[in-house]
Amino acid sequence: MTQANPPASARGPRIAVYPGSFDPITRGHVEIVERAARVFDAVIVAVGRHPTKPGYFPVDERLALITASVAHVATARVAHFTGLVVDFCRREGAAAIVRGLRATSDFESEFQMGLANRDLAPDVETVFLIPRPEQMYVSSSLIREIAAHGGDFARYVPEPVAAAMRARNAQRQGST
Questions:
Q1: Catalytic: 140?
Q2: 11 noted as active-site residue
Q3: Cβ atoms of 28 and 106 closer than 8 Å
Q4: Residues 53, 80, 132, 172: which is the catalytic one?
Q5: Are the C-beta atoms of residues 44 and 15 closer than 8 Å to each other?
Q6: Is 102 a catalytic residue?
Q7: Quick check: is 175 catalytic?
């Protein structure tokens, strides 16, 4: 016998965690936050520290930039986590992990991670959202590369991020 899902009023808010390094956050990331906020009652943009990649922006600065970039999404908040994302989800009472899929090349690694997360935490679902086509090729690493070579990266990131990247690049050029 299967048990029906309880009504929304009985189960509490449906919380989703959108994990990543967001270094920097892109317009595509912001779009995923906006779309997740239409599906879930609350979205936590969870900034993790990548164990093998040094950050372009320190975690505290990323948290501030993300907060400014998603301020228009009333049900979104930003947090930092260490360890497994499923453990963070449990601590926060999250029912889902949101991931963005840009291209088929993302699918295999995201699918593998989703299966591992389901094995570790069967009560936490993984939900994939697909960005608009014009955002599909944009990644944080591409933006960093464009910026490093003096290209116009501003169209790919929210304005607070563009300003911070310009300041960082000016500071680096001034110190060489």
A1: yes
A2: no
A3: no
A4: 53
A5: yes
A6: yes
A7: no
Rounded mean pLDDT, 29-37: 97
Helix pair angle (159-174, 59-69), 10° resolution: 150
- Chain centre to alpha carbon of residue 143: 15
Q: Which of 49, 102, 144, 168 is catalytic?
A: 102
Predicted confidence at residue 11, as pLDDT, reads: 66
- pLDDT single digits (tens) 96-151: 999 999 877 788 899 999 999 999 999 999 999 998 888 888 999 999 999 989 99
pLDDT at 86 over 60: yes
- CA-wise closest residue to 104 among 136, 141, 143: 136
Q: Domain ranges for the chain, please list them.
A: 11-138
Tell me the average pLDDT of the chain: 90
Reported pTM: 0.89
Written as one letter, the residue type at 80 is H
Domain 11-138 has CATH 3.40.50.620: yes
Q: Give me the catalytic one of 27, 29, 35, 99.
A: 29
Give the C-alpha distances (Å, rounded to integers) separating 7 from 10, 11, 13, 15. 5, 7, 11, 15
